[in-house]
Amino acid sequence: MTFLRTKLSVHPALPRVAPFILFLVLTSLQGQFGEESRYWLYLAKTVLAVWMIWVIRPLVSEMKWAFSWEAVVVGVGVFAVWVGLDGLYPSLNELLARIGFELSSEPAKAWNPHVQFGEGSTLALLFIVVRIIGPVLVVPPLEEVFYRSFLYRWIVKPDFESVPLNRFNLKAFAFTALIFGFVHDQWLAGILCAMAYQFLVIRKNRLGDAMTAHAITNLLLGVWVIWRGAWNFW
Question: For the segment 11-30, what is each residue's pLDDT rounded down to a tens digit?
């Protein structure tokens, strides 16, 4: 761990970018080795991400959780937008299909452990718990550090550490939101989500409130998925 931490400390961008890229690579491999690999690779990347967060923690000073009423409002609001807009606009996969760029000839299967491993089975319950823990405790610090701390400030100035978190820059605000939005199938909700989280960072001049808002959004979305059986959100 000390060796890796030393290597990542060579440049301030490394601890903010490398864990996120590794997380994306593992995400892209889910399902590439059979349908069950979607679940096992998700478990593996979640465990690995916890370890990565522990490694980079001393190197990323802004990666600290913070709680505020604004974080709660934004977190709940983004959840409402994400669910409320569902079905009102074409998804990213649908847009790509319209221009003849289909990622797969078969429609993507929803993440539903009950279907894959049996209703109420131990494995189904395990992967549901992991699917809650990952987005609530692991994804927020990784994504907020990359998008709201590194990418946003890097677009403003390559020497990103010299850019305060509360600085507003229209180009960085727009580009970060678009990039964040279009890595999600629900791209429009993703763009609005990114704007809300970035606004929170700018308003509070810290990253922790956006991490908390992100966690609240994902927790509510997880509860919604389980309660309503809306597996398409996963």
Answer: 999 999 999 999 999 998 98
Q: What is the pTM of this model?
A: 0.94
Distance CA(103)–CA(58), nearest Å, equals 39
The pLDDT assigned to 47 comes to 96
Question: By C-alpha distance, which of 210, 170, 173, 172 is closest to 62?
Answer: 210
Q: What is the pLDDT of residue 217?
A: 98
Helices 170-181/187-204 angle, 10° precision? 140
50 falls within a domain: no
CA 189 to chain centre: 13
Q: Which of 137, 173, 166, 141 is nearest to 59 (CA)?
A: 141
Say if residues 62 and 152 touch (Cβ distance below 8 Å): no
**Contact present, 131 and 222 (Cβ < 8 Å):** yes
Whether 77 is in a domain gets the answer yes
Residues 6 or more apart whose CB falls under 8 angstroms from that of 53 comprise 19, 63, 138, 141, 142
Which residue range(s) make up the domain with 193? 64-233
**Amino acid code (one letter) for 30:** Q
184, 190 Cβ separation under 8 angstroms: yes
Contacts 24+ apart (CB under 8 A), 114-117: 116/35, 116/36, 116/39, 117/39
